[in-house]
Amino acid sequence: MTAADLKRTPLHDAHEALGARLVPFAGYAMPVQYAGIKKEHAAVRERAGLFDVSHMGELFLEGPEALAVADRLVTNDVASLEVGQALYTVCCNEGGTILDDLIVYRLGDEKVLIVCNASNRGKIGPHVAEHAEGHCRFEDASDDTVLLALQGPEAVAIMRAAGAADALVDLGFFRVAQGEVAGVSCTIARTGYTGEDGFELFCANADGPALWNALLEKGAPHGITPVGLGARDTLRLEAKLCLYGNDIDETTNPYEAGLGWVVKLDRGDFVGKAALQKVKAEGVDRKLVGFEMVERGIARHGYPIVAVEGTEGADAGAKLGEVTSGSPAPTLGKNIGLGYVPKALAKRGTRLGIEIRGKVAEAKIVKTPFYKRAK
Question: How far is it between the farthest Cα atoms of the chain?
Fold first, then answer.
């Protein structure tokens, strides 16, 4: 795909004006950084950052059976949602492996919004549409929707400065409401992908640039900065938030990925339930673990995880798995990563080796999330 073939979000011109470095991502030209990944990462942890995530998918279900359709598609209990509430979940195939991870928002008595990953929109959209057929209305509004993420400890103050009503600013975690911010009609959710407090704001394409500019203007006294995909990745990794295509995909099930908490087997039928009941009963062979590097080196996606001297039940150099995500952790001053290892080795303190360009650097399994914000 050439640069000319890439889609552009409605904020493309704004990113260019801010000097963003644009890269191909999920078929879009997206900003990977503006001032630099470390600076942008620190801004979100310490003040606030504003992200354009308009490449994400927005799928709507509407009608008397909308809630039931969404409930059957995912592992978590959508039917229990109150109007104005959201949940994190995964969507599985009949084999119990993960098609995508999603956030499902109940916008009304008969209206549901499903937000999927940009890279999976071509798969999840038709999947949801197929299940909705004959039961409720389906709309893929992704191409008509701007999605901004305002994240960081100053997010609340910036929302107030942008004119958001108290009811919006005071939304509870994983709650959603309709309202105006900076005079723009939005759907506002207290959700995010950074490990920090914050909001995600959905609006019409035509209103996206005005909302983006207003939040940057009103946020300037609070130290806001635009943030690209580079810092989004380091922020989510520190918080151990899975990235689809790296840490989870159609070869992984929720239990081995540490997402068993979003699988509710004690409710009605859903796609993949029988397979997941079997996994739960029999247990998993491997687990997703977090590790930090003990020796110098940065673990990257795809690097082999190997046994080292003293690794229980494995000869030194034997391959145990692969790194699914890895990078420096700017907040922690360490190099960290995620990867799947045999269940017997998935204990805190276990020593591992990461093969980096033919040499093995030692790492150890640690407690996750690597970073957790103070309440």
Answer: 63
Q: How far apart are the first and last CA of the chain?
A: 44
CA angle 322, 323, 328 (to 5 degrees): 160
- Rounded to whole angstroms, the Cα distance separating 134 from 167 reads 37
What does the pLDDT average to over 13-40?
97
> How many angstroms separate the CA atoms of 226 and 43, rounded?
9
Do 56 and 30 contact (CB within 8 A), yes or no?
A: no
Span 285-315, pLDDT tens digits:
999 999 999 999 999 999 999 999 978 888 8
Distances (CA, A) of 248 to 53, 129, 244, 321, 325: 20, 23, 5, 14, 10
User: Cα 360 to the chain's mean position, in Å?
Assistant: 30
pLDDT band for position 1 (50/70/90)?
Answer: low
Long-range contacts made by residues 13-16, C-beta under 8 angstroms, separation at least 24? Answer: 13/209, 14/52, 14/209, 14/212, 14/213, 15/52, 15/226
Q: Write down the pTM of the prediction.
A: 0.96
Mean pLDDT of 183-208: 98
What domains, with CATH codes, occur in the chain?
Answer: 3-53+144-238 (3.30.1360.120), 57-140 (3.30.70.1400), 285-366 (2.40.30.110)
Taking 70 as the threshold, does the pLDDT of residue 257 lie above it? yes
Amino acid at 200: E
102/91 Cα distance (integer angstroms) = 7
Type of residue numbered 256: E
Contact predicate 341/330, CB 8 Å: no
DSSP track, 153-196: TTHHHHHHHTT--HHHHTPPTTBEEEEEETTEEEEEES--SSSS
Instruction: Kindly give the interhelix angle for 37-46 and 229-238, rounded to the nearest 10 degrees.
Output: 50
